Amino acid sequence: MAAGAHHRGHSPRLPSSAPxxxxxIQAIRVEGNDRIExxxxxxxxxxxxxxxxxxxxxxxxxxxxxxxxxxxxxxLTRDANTLVVRVVxxxxxxTITFEGNxxxxxxxLRKELQLRPRAVFTPRMAQSDRQRLLGVYAAKGxxxxxxxxxxxxxxxxxxxxxxxxxxxxxxxxxxxxFVGNHAFSESRLAEVIxxxxxxWWRFLSSSDEFNPQRVAYDRELLRRFYLKNGYADFDVTGAxxxxxxxxxxxxxxxxxxxxxxYRVGKITLKxxxxxxxxxxxxxxxxxKSGDWYDGDAVEQSTQALQAEVEGxxxxxxxxxxxxxxxxxxxxxxxxxxxxxxxxxxxxRIDISGNSRTKDKVIRRExxxxxxxxxxxxAMRRTKQRLEDLGYFNTVNITTQPGxxxxxxxxxxxxxxxxxxELTLGGGFSTDAGVLGQxxxxxxxxxxxxxxxxxxxxxxxxxxxVDLSVTDPYFLDRNLVAxxxxxxxxNNNLDISNYEERRAGMSLRLGxxxxxxxxxxxxxxxxxxxxxxxxxxxxxxxxxxxxxxLLSQIGxxxxxxxxxxxxxxxxxxxxxxxTDFAGIGGDETYLRAKIDGTYYVPFGWLxxxxxxxxxxxxxxxxxxxxxxxxxxxxxxxxGGDNLRGFQDGGAGPHSIPNATYPSADSLGGDFIWTQSxxxxxxxxxxxxxxxxxxxxxxxxxxxxxxxxxNTSAQGIADTGAPRVGAGVGVSWKSPxxxxxxxIADPVVKKTHDQTQVFRFGFGTRF
Length: 765
Known about the structure:
The chain is mainly beta.
């Protein structure tokens, strides 16, 4: 037999002896193939019958066959004038399993693999997948993890692949060092970055686990912090991560150049658009001469100027901020160039990654449509709106050139997350007492954006069952529609010697006029019952016993300029609400309420944006238009709206006498409240989620209209102000928000029921 070419192993090698030259290939015979068709193998050959026995082409054919990844062994030999191709096929993957993984589930690991069931197995792919899995564990802080791919041979040239994993200990950050800092201490800079040194109390957080992406983010956080505080020349020159010899921890070192601190010198606006004047635009610049330079304020000014100019009818505009440093004076001059931007239009909006959420649910959040002028500010607002939905883990919006120079394609890539919630909870609050809770909610029902849920709470003083559904885009329009059905029981024995039960339904409809102004309407039909009136109750409570039917329509109009709806630090919100009862039912009244909160940031003074002064005020009036007035419809003062007093415990009370010895809280027709609260961070690690507050609450309640049957007993109804002052702590715990307040009822009246300690707790598990 003539010498031939052979290959076995990881890389092709030349044959051990040169093939016999000369002669013509009469036939090519393939041996050893089982799954792979002979024709498929021949298609990879560079030789055909009739060709000469060329050693170079034989060797290239060998390498081509092996490069397919289909074969474990390949040899090409000559038998007379026949070229014999012998192959040993790579096995086929039957199953892939993982052993030893605890912190990462199978589905997450499987997504990283190149190997797939019913695909060809190669050792190279197994080793590549091993590295991919190690990368997954490194991203979660497990740098000491090991992954060992093993195979179990089966019949018919199949294999089971088992990845045996030893996760090892998580790799924590043992020490963080800052080099080159002079203006701020290490402890202050440690609060700026998101990485944390490992401490025992961080067992509920992952911030002390080493993560390269987090370190890169920390560099940006440091840069933004220094720019915000006037250091325009700041630069992080290095961020070094050193793994300890035992591979259990990292040492992080941030090296920086602070540079000089600058104040703002001259501020110039330079419009370069037809008929656009600088007058009136100065108000949108968030800095003034003499202020410390603030990079965040420059960015906010740029966005505010762009939005204002676009609103004046210039759709294609760029605002380009420029700074001119004067190191000798330690000042920077700011120049805002307002120029004509490139004219471009949205050719197409592509959406990817939404396997569950319908396209229209995503598209309706866009602030522009196909064919509109492309607007980067609108794109940023769209991204924020999509993130605010709570349906997605990540939202990425990018652009690419379209079919013409003035066309862009907007690509929106999303990563969906689970939106269903099963809530089981328990806790205690001073309002409801010991409570238990169970709920089922889906915020994105079958991908339509509809929010539906059922929730039940069983407590000592307040229990309810509520079924709710809300469509945020009813009829695919700017309408929020919803419906509720509920059963509520309130135990008022502590303040008024009665219990009440409400069973009813409500319909809701709302819409937005713009990003700040919105209005909602509601209709309620409720069956109410005042029952279980205790012996000794006042005549006014005794007279309330029995059922009544409420048919009420109401509306609320809101003006919201807060910087965040969940955690506001700046801006204000104002609401005006009215309710009218009398469309059928037993009650006829008109009730009006107005309230608002103004947030004053104190970061400019303290250097920490978590210092916020919240000033709130509100008032309400109930006008009984006809019929009797019921206690169940009145306003009550105390608890959340006046700390230091029991819920509903301040305001008009019945005056006890020998016949009716109880001082019952009766509510009132006119209420006003005012609260001034300073919110501040506590001197502990931000990872603990603790914040503090100091407050003064003021309020008054008056106006009790009684029926002729109750004129025999007096009422303490002075309407005099009550005052409560105190301090509190909030903890954003893994089990829910916990609030603790200690308040002193500074100004109180006879028969008021006070409450020095107030505690609220909720949990999910």
